[in-house]
Amino acid sequence: MRNEMDRNKVINKHIKPFFLRKYRKISISEMIISLMVILCSLPQELTLKSYSDSYTRQYGSSYTITISMVLVVCLIIARNGHIKKYKYTIKSPFIAFILFGVFSICFKPFNGVPIAFYGIAACKYLAYGLMFIVLTNCVTYHRFLEGFDLGAKAGLIFQSIIGWLYVFAGVEVPVIGGHSNSVRNGLSRMVGTFQHPGDFSLYIGILFVYFLCRIIITGEKKKLIYLFIAFLDIFLSGARTMLLVTSIVAVIVLYKKYRRSSFAKVAIFAVIVFVVVLFLQSDIYQDMFVRHNVYDMLVARTIHWILGFKIMTESISNFLFGIGMNNIVHYIDENYTRYAALVALASNVLDSDFVRGMPIHNSFLIIGCELGIGGFTLYIWIYIWYTRQLLQIMRKSIASKFDCFFIIADFGVFILYSFQGWAMMKNFAWTLFILIISFATLVIRENKKSRFMFTCDRNDK
């Protein structure tokens, strides 16, 4: 118990707002973590080799170097190339998934995946694996927490300024600023540095959950301003899915926090009912869900999901070996006659050009179609394994309550968003996902270490 109290004091010291830490220098590892959070939102990549391709492949059609890769190399250089060996990194199911994806080239005799486009995805997988290994072996728990906190605040402000300039003043920041031709509630949908409101809303949704857990779990009321800005950004993006997802996650976090208080549960329920009734009677609801028919979107998504499930299960080869990484759109286009009748069921909201030119709008189905049941199972296992570990820690350690709430809540955002979109396959989302599971790995390691020290202290007595 004493060790947990001491550790809690250390955590409170490290999460003190950066503007109160006047005499503390930011370490290189903290700076790199914060820059990864901020700069993963920039779409700019250095192209090494490009292939002419008319398809929108989720991993792209070019061999590239991303900003996140450069930052990881900088971290390795800062550590003089020294990477520790921790068994919890090797045991992570994420490494197993990455290796499965890279070695899926062995399935080429069964799926005939184009080597060039598989290679693009494989190189990104290797980069993501390296990123995870470096982050979990070159950054301490406290440095990571400091860096993510700084990056979350700076990233939110950065995106908000760029987004608001375009939404309210019509000013698009050169080179990095994005824009959307879609309009919601009389305003252009906010995208920040992204090219699509859905991508922007996913990025902001992750930050929203971080500030929400800071306020509810650790009681940092000064972060209310960041939470408000994040929610405003999600609303201005017009992303109905993320608006619902963050609302659901917020309710779950509140319930878990106050589940032992009957008064709090009744108060939360009453507020939810009041807000929902008020929202349903507002013009905002009419514009977002009625004038821009949410039913049409649901029908289009459903047909896309059925299509993905059909591809995954239509043959033993597809089910076991997949159709090859970075190959889903090409496969649909080449075999479209088999799916034309299915797409025709929703011809008023879903056209053939969209189906033949865009990845399945479900990240889980993309993994399942491209890597078969083995890759699909390993990908799902990442979420299950970390959630189980964190729930065990949450029951035993009060000091880690925020860590576990934050990570599991962000898992909820990733999962719910993945069911209806493919943005989780993009570089910015992979970077955020790796940051979160790297932090989860550090939390697990930190608690293993704390329990070992506590056992040693007790044996000494």
Structure report:
The protein has 461 residues and is mostly helical. It is 70% helix and 3% strand. The protein has 21 helices and 4 strands. It has a two-stranded antiparallel ribbon. Strands 3-4 form a two-stranded antiparallel sheet. Strand 3 and strand 4 (187-188) form a beta hairpin. Helix 19 packs parallel to helix 21 (427-460). The protein is globular and about 55 Å long. Residues 16-23 and 452-461 have low confidence and may be disordered.
β-strand number: 4
Largest sheet: spatial strand order:
1-2
Main pleated sheet: 2 strands, antiparallel
Binned strand content = under 5%
Helix-strand pattern: HHEEHHHHHHEEHHHHHHHHHHHHH
Secondary structure tally, helices: 21
What Rg is obtained from the alpha carbons, in whole angstroms? 23 Å
Mean pLDDT value: 86
Percentage of residues in helical conformation:
55-70%
Q: Which word captures the global form?
A: globular
Structural class of the helix and strand makeup?
A: mainly alpha
Low-confidence segments: 16-23, 452-461
Distance between the termini: 15 Å
List the helices and strands and how they pair.
Layout: H1 2-14, H2 28-39, E1 46-50, E2 62-65, H3 67-78, H4 87-91, H5 93-102, H6 108-111, H7 115-138, H8 141-169, E3 183-184, E4 187-188, H9 197-218, H10 224-237, H11 240-257, H12 262-280, H13 283-291, H14 294-313, H15 316-321, H16 328-334, H17 340-344, H18 352-357, H19 363-396, H20 401-418, H21 427-460
Helix pairs in contact: 2-3, 2-8, 3-7, 5-7, 5-19, 7-21, 8-10, 9-10, 9-11, 9-20, 11-20, 14-19, 19-20, 19-21, 20-21
